[in-house]
Specification:
By secondary structure, this protein is an alpha/beta fold. The protein is built from 9 helices and 12 strands. It has 2 domains: about 190 residues, Rossmann fold (3-Layer(aba) Sandwich); about 70 residues, Glutamyl-tRNA Synthetase, Domain 3 (Glutamyl-tRNA Synthetase, domain 3), CATH 3.90.800. A 3-stranded parallel beta sheet has the order 1-2-3, covered by helices on one side. A 3-stranded antiparallel beta sheet has the order 4-5-8. The chain has a two-stranded antiparallel ribbon with strand order 6-7. Bound molecules: glutamic acid (GLU).
Length: about 300
């Protein structure tokens, strides 16, 4: 370990849309071990900003599972559902600085737009220069501009042209909820997160998050995107793909499988060892450099 002067702050930020599955365990393991390896702190944030996708009881179940697996976080859990004021303040700042504009477009109108008909989900810019006459605001968007570049510690150099690839993106949704992109940026900055380690399914969100950090005058953390666990059909494990809850498996075996998935080489008998021994091995041997530079990989069969 590199000592106590390290300012490393990492985090795990699950969305409580179902029980913890192997894919989310992988993100928890990777983010936690990377923080510990740097002598840093590791935080837990429940991303329940998207209320319609939040499943009653899922957050408590995730916390109970993490505890059973032996995870320990270094501060009180942050709940996005309790942070609306902070998100509203960030939106006010974006509005005041002229970076956000009201948008009247319905989903239907956007789907019918010639610019999006080619399969791209880019916003066609309809309300960018003002609401069409007689229409009222449904959502708020941020003007996309510039190219976001970052060097991902696993996936290598990345760049995204915000305007060409993403378009003006939503920060306040038509249903009145703040968008994940805004919430995550505000929360990471408030917690002083220096390193974001998470699944590569969020690689494409990173440019928007870096863009928002700049507009809001917030620091940009370092990023490392882990391969996402898929089923044999190549679908990301999720509630929709009926991923099995990780709680159905013995923690030592599941933890060992997550380490192997992340390119570490746990000894074969570790899966049957006491949980504390698995953690000891993981803390002593973890190396981010061993994680494959891949966006996804098939999850192992757990017994
Ligand atoms: N809540 C997101 C998810 O569960 C993760 C967000 C993040 O790590 O930035 O996919």
């Amino acid at each position: 370990m590199t000592g106590t002067q390290s300012p490393y702050i990492g985090r795990f930020a699950p969305s409580p849309s179902g029980p913890l599955h192997f894919g989310s365990l992988v993100a928890a393991v990777g983010s936690c071990l990377e923080a510990r390896r740097h002598g840093g702190r590791w935080l837990l944030r429940i991303e329940d900003v998207d209320a319609p996708r939040t499943v009653a009881g899922a957050a408590d179940a995730i916390i109970a599972t993490l505890t059973r697996f032996g995870f320990e976080w270094d501060a009180d859990i942050v709940w996005q559902s309790r942070r609306t004021e902070a998100y509203a303040a960030a939106l006010e700042r974006l509005k005041a600085d002229g970076h956000a504009f009201p948008c009247a477009c319905t989903r239907r109108e956007l789907a019918d737009s010639a610019l999006t008909r080619d399969g791209s989900h880019r916003y066609p810019g309809t309300c960018r220069d003002g609401l069409p006459p007689g229409r009222s605001a449904r959502a708020w968007r941020v003007r996309a501009a510039g190219v976001a570049r970052f060097d991902d510690a696993i996936q290598g150099p990345q760049q995204e042209d915000l305007e060409a690839d993403v378009g003006d993106y939503i920060v306040l949704r038509a249903d009145g909820l703040f968008a994940y992109q805004l919430a995550v940026v505000v929360d990471d900055a408030e917690a002083g997160v220096t390193h974001v380690v998470r699944g590569a399914d969020l690689l494409d969100s990173t440019a928007r998050q870096i863009h928002l950090q700049r507009l809001l005058g917030l620091p940009t953390p370092a990023y490392a995107h882990l391969p996402v666990a898929t089923n044999a059909a190549g679908e990301k494990l999720s509630k929709q793909t009926l991923a099995q809850a990780i709680d159905d498996h013995p923690p030592a075996a599941a933890l060992t499988a997550a380490l192997a998935f992340l390119g570490q080489r746990p000894p074969r008998d570790l899966a049957q060892a006491p949980l504390a021994r698995v953690w000891d091995w993981a803390l002593a041997n973890w190396s981010l450099a061993n994680v494959a530079r891949r966006r996804h990989a098939v999850a192992p069969e757990l017994t």
